[in-house]
């Protein structure tokens, strides 16, 4: 079982002396609800001297772009939304594996509004899990006690979904955007189900990056993910205060709206 250390903000300088540190839930401007450019994330990762799992909503452009930086520790991933509007974080050992999964399974099944404010697929959650299991990957349930319709705990607690839960590797037990109560409930659920844990900031703005990290001694993406599967990981971080969480929402949507507007203007000229 992974160990969780909270509610303290991680001391990155001390931790990196012994561990590889990765923020396991990071979004870029490729996501429908984020305006942070990949190059800004790359710069911030170098400043913090940590790695990141790039997990955009139903797209992989950010993960593929940042994976080209040889000096960065990038775990290629994706946050896939099922037709039931439940999310899965899926992490891959290589960009090539992520790209194959995306082009084969996700891209053909994106709903028409994939470029709108809310992105989703036409795939049932069980199908996404079954298809992902054909790859060497790690599947984690993010923010399981989020508000509906994202509340995955309620979905997996239904008797007919127990087989799907058995195919899940991990549960995200520390997410900076969630309340202390929600994160503690996630941890309790992980313990109850015997699942290993992941943690990340769920950064939709640059200032959140690195506020929650997963630490292992794995020095490659594959070794890092394997350490999590084996329960040899620590999760460090602190939830953002309610004021900070909600104060960032206007920034996220304003920045994204401005980005989309600029893109539309460029296409008109």
> SSE order, as H and E?
EHEHEHEEHHEHHEHEEHEH
Radius of gyration: 17 Å
| CATH architecture term | Alpha-Beta Barrel
Strand percentage, roughly?
Answer: 15-25%
Question: Overall mean pLDDT score?
Answer: 89
Strand order of the largest sheet: 1-10-9-2-3-4-5-6-7-8
Q: How many angstroms separate the termini?
A: 55 Å
* Assembly form of the protein: single chain
- How many strand elements? 10
Report the sheet with the most strands, covering strand number, pairing sense and barrel closure.
Answer: 10 strands, mixed
CATH class: Alpha Beta
What does this structure look like?
The chain is of the alpha/beta class and 269 residues long. The protein has a single domain, classed as TIM Barrel. It has helices at 12-15, 38-48, 61-66, 95-106, 125-132, 152-156, 162-166, 180-193, 221-229, 242-268; strands at 3-5, 20-26, 51-54, 74-81, 87-92, 137-141, 170-175, 196-200, 212-216, 234-237. The mean pLDDT is 89.
């Amino acid at each position: 079982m992974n160990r969780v250390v909270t509610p303290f903000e991680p001391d990155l300088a001390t931790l990196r002396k012994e561990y590889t540190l990765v923020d396991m839930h990071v979004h870029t401007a490729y996501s429908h609800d984020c305006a942070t450019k990949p190059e800004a994330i790359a710069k911030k990762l170098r400043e913090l001297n940590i790695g990141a799992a790039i997990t955009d909503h139903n797209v992989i452009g950010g993960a593929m772009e940042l994976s080209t930086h040889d000096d960065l520790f990038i775990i290629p991933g994706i946050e896939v939304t099922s037709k039931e509007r439940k999310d899965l974080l899926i992490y891959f050992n290589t960009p090539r594996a992520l790209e194959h999964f995306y082009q084969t399974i996700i891209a053909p099944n994106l709903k028409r509004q994939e470029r709108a404010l809310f992105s989703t697929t036409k795939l049932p959650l069980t199908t996404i899990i079954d298809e992902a299991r054909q790859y060497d990957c790690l599947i984690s349930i993010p923010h399981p006690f989020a508000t509906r319709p994202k509340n995955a705990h309620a979905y997996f607690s239904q008797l007919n979904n127990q087989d799907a839960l058995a195919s899940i590797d991990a549960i995200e037990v520390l997410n900076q955007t969630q309340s202390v109560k929600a994160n503690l409930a996630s941890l309790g659920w992980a313990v109850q189900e015997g699942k290993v844990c992941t943690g990340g900031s769920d950064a939709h703005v640059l200032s959140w990056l690195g506020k929650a990290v997963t630490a292992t001694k794995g020095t490659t993406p594959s070794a890092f993910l394997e350490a999590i599967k084996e329960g040899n990981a620590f999760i460090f971080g602190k939830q953002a205060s309610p004021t900070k969480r909600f104060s960032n929402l206007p920034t996220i949507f304003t920045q994204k709206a401005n980005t989309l507007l600029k893109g539309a203007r460029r296409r008109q000229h």
